[in-house]
Amino acid sequence: MPKYQEPINLAHLQPKNRIIRSATHSFLPDEQGYMTEAEYSMYEKLAECGVGTIISGHCCVRQGGRANLEQVNIWGDGFADQFTRAADICHAGGALFLPQLSHAGPRAIDTEDLADVSQRDLKKGRHARELTPEEIKAIEGSFIAAAQRLQKAGVDGVQLHGAHSYLLSRFLDPTFNQRTDSYGNSEENRFRILEEIITGIRAACGGDFPIALKINIDSKYEDPELYSRSLRFYLTRCQALGLEFVELSGVDFINQPKDATLYYLEQAAALKKEFPQLPLALVGGVRSLQDIEKALAEGLDLVSLSRGLIADPDLLIKLQIGGEKSRCVSCSRCFVLPHLHPGIRCVWAWKEVKAQQKQQDRKGENS
Ligand SMILES: Cc1cc2nc3c(=O)[nH]c(=O)nc-3n(C[C@H](O)[C@H](O)[C@H](O)COP(=O)(O)O)c2cc1C
C-alpha cells in the first residue's frame, strides 16, 4: 500500500489517509456568503474520490473582512447551517471537514476604512491604517465566535489562515508587522494574536476541539533568517498549544515556475526533523504520486493539494488505477476562469465544455 493511503492518528482526528484538499476558494458560493449546490457537489466529489481531509475555502469571520465577493461567511449564526450540510456530505464520503477561518486585513473588499497590522501604503494610491489594540481584540473575538459556531454545526475542527498575506500572516511576518506594542517587535509579540485566538477557541470550545494552522514557510523580509528563526518559535508554540497539524505553505506559490514541484519540501523536511512531535502537512506543487510519496518519505505527515484537485477532483482514484499525475499544469487560470465563465474552475473543464458545445452544434447542423 502506498504510504499516502495509510491512516494517521492525530491528537483528536484520525483521517483515513494522508491527503488533504488544501483550502481553496472555489468562486462557487453566492455573494451573500452562502454555499451553493455547486459548492456542495464539489465537496461530495472530493470526498467520494478519496480525499481524507477537506479544508473549505477561506471563510470570513467578520463583516468588513471579506477578500472575495463569492466567499462563504461565518460571521453570524445565520451562516452556520450550511456547514452542517457540508460536514454531513464530507462525512458520508468518509472525509473529515475543517472550515478555514480568515480575515482579509487590508485586502478587504467591503470597506474603505482599510486597516493592517501596521499602517501601510497599498496599491492604487490606497492606504491602510494600523489596527488599534481594541480592534485586534475584536478580531480575535470574531475568530473565536466563528469556531464556536462551527463546532456547534458539527465540523471536525477549524484551520486558521495564517498564510499568503492574509491578516494573521501579516502579524507573524516582520515585512508587515512593524508594531512596537505587545503585538509586534518580538517573535512572542508577533505570535500573540494567534496565541490569543487559539487559547480563546480552547476556552470556548474545549481542549479537544481540533485547531490547525496554515503558515508561510518563508517571507519577503530583508532578513530571511529573522523570519526563519521566528517560524521556529511559532512552531514551538503550535506544538505547546497542541495544534492538530500545521500546514506549511509559502508567500510565492503563485510565482513558481510552471513545471516546479515540491518547492517548499527541503525547508519543510528540515522543520519536520526539528519538530518530530508536531504533525506537519506540506502544500505547494504536489502533482503526482511520486511527489506525494516523496514528501511523505521526507517525513511530512500529510500532503495537501489545491490546484491538482481542481484539475482532477478524482485524482486519487486515477492514482489507484495506475495514473501517475494530475493534469494540472500550474497555469493558475483557476483564479481567473470562474469570473469569465461562472462555475468553470479549470482550463481542462473549460476545454470539455467547449468540446461538448461543438458536438451539440454539429448535431444541430445535422438534424
Ligand atoms: C483558486 C485558488 C484558490 C485558493 N484559495 C485559498 C484559500 O481560500 N485559502 C488558502 O489558504 N489557500 C488558498 N489557495 C492556495 C492553495 O491552498 C495552495 O496553498 C496553493 O495553491 C499551492 O498548492 P497547489 O500547488 O497544490 O495549488 C488557493 C489556491 C487557488 C489556486
Q: What this model shows, in words?
A:
This protein is α/β, with parallel strands linked by helices. It has two domains: 3-330, TIM Barrel (Alpha-Beta Barrel); 332-367. Helix content is 38%, strand content 13%. The chain has helices at 37-48, 81-92, 133-153, 167-172, 187-190, 192-205, 224-240, 265-274, 289-297, 307-311, 315-320, 337-340, 347-366, and strands spanning 19-21, 53-60, 96-102, 115-116, 120-121, 127-130, 158-162, 211-216, 246-249, 280-283, 302-305. The chain has an eight-stranded parallel beta barrel, surrounded by seven helices. Strand 2, helix 2 (81-92) and strand 3 form a beta-alpha-beta unit. The longest helix is centred in the middle third of the chain and has 21 residues, at 133-153. Bound molecules: flavin mononucleotide (FMN). Residues 22-25, 57-58, 100, 161, 163-164, 214, 249, 253, 283-286, 305-308, 334-335 line the site of flavin mononucleotide.
Q: Residue share in helices? A: 25-40%
From the N-terminal CA to the C-terminal CA, the straight-line distance is 52 Å
Q: β content, as a range?
A: 5-15%
Widest sheet: strand ordering = 1-2-3-7-8-9-10-11
Q: What hetero molecules are bound to the protein chains?
A: flavin mononucleotide
CATH superfamily annotation of the largest domain: Aldolase class I
Shape: globular
Number of strands: 11
